[in-house]
């Protein structure tokens, strides 16, 4: 069985199979994932991302992002500084936080590859529709949390796995760049592993607060 990319456990089983890919689910942390040999190449990934049409002046897109912005903003101190990780080709959430008085940096491996911003500290970090794309979510999320102080926030937006029946007809798995699928149990495992507490203020939003430096 393939190794879980979140917790590195080998306690996984085949969860689902469709015409294109296999999906396994970890018995330790509850993550569902695509095995490494069935992932896209970086070039193939970027070709898909280049088709995205998300713009800061799109009211619908702003409403979508507000599902993360509003609950996270209510927990931040005035002027708290943030990083939007995986900002994509049309950074918008960072602009919305800046409009609310929060200075922001952005990082994206394809569209804003600025390694220097990953060497700084932030009061909060956001990643909207990002974690489902990560090949090594355990390592990447641990790196992000290391940039936060005690009390800092990690705000994540991704749709969550419910059960095997729902997964089989889930539109979310049709995107070939989606390779990791979190459940509430996955986020709870992650919070315990990284010394955080987790809240679920919306169906596809998870807010994790760092409890210790």
TrEMBL record:
Gene Ontology MF terms: methyltransferase activity
Protein's UniProt keywords contain RNA-binding: no
Origin: domain of life: Bacteria
One Pfam short name: Methyltransf_23
Alphabetized UniProt keyword annotations: Methyltransferase, Transferase
InterPro entries, alphabetized: SAM-dependent_MTases_sf
Any GO BP: methylation
UniProt xrefs under Gene3D superfamilies: Vaccinia Virus protein VP39
Keyword Methyltransferase: yes
UniProt-recorded name of the protein: Class I SAM-dependent methyltransferase
Organism: Billgrantia antri
């Amino acid at each position: 069985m393939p190794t879980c990319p979140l917790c590195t456990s080998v306690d996984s089983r085949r969860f689902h199979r469709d015409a294109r890919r296999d999906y396994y689910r970890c018995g330790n942390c509850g993550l569902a994932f695509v095995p490494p040999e069935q992932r896209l190449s970086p070039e193939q990934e970027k070709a898909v991302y280049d088709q995205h049409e998300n713009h800061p002046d799109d009211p619908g897109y702003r409403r979508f992002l507000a599902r993360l912005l509003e609950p996270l903003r209510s927990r931040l101190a005035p002027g708290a500084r943030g990083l939007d990780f995986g900002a994509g080709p049309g950074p918008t959430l960072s602009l919305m936080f800046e409009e609310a008085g929060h200075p922001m940096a952005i990082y994206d491996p394809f569209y804003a590859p600025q390694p220097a911003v990953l060497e700084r500290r932030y009061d909060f970090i956001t990643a909207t529709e990002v974690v489902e794309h990560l090949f090594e979510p355990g390592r990447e999320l641990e790196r992000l949390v290391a940039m936060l102080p005690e009390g800092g926030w990690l705000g994540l937006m991704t749709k969550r796995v419910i059960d095997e029946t729902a997964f089989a007809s889930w539109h979310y798995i049709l995107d070939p760049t989606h390779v990791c699928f979190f459940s509430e149990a996955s986020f709870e495992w992650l919070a315990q592993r990284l010394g955080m507490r987790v809240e679920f203020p919306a169906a596809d939003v998870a807010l994790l607060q760092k409890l210790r430096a």
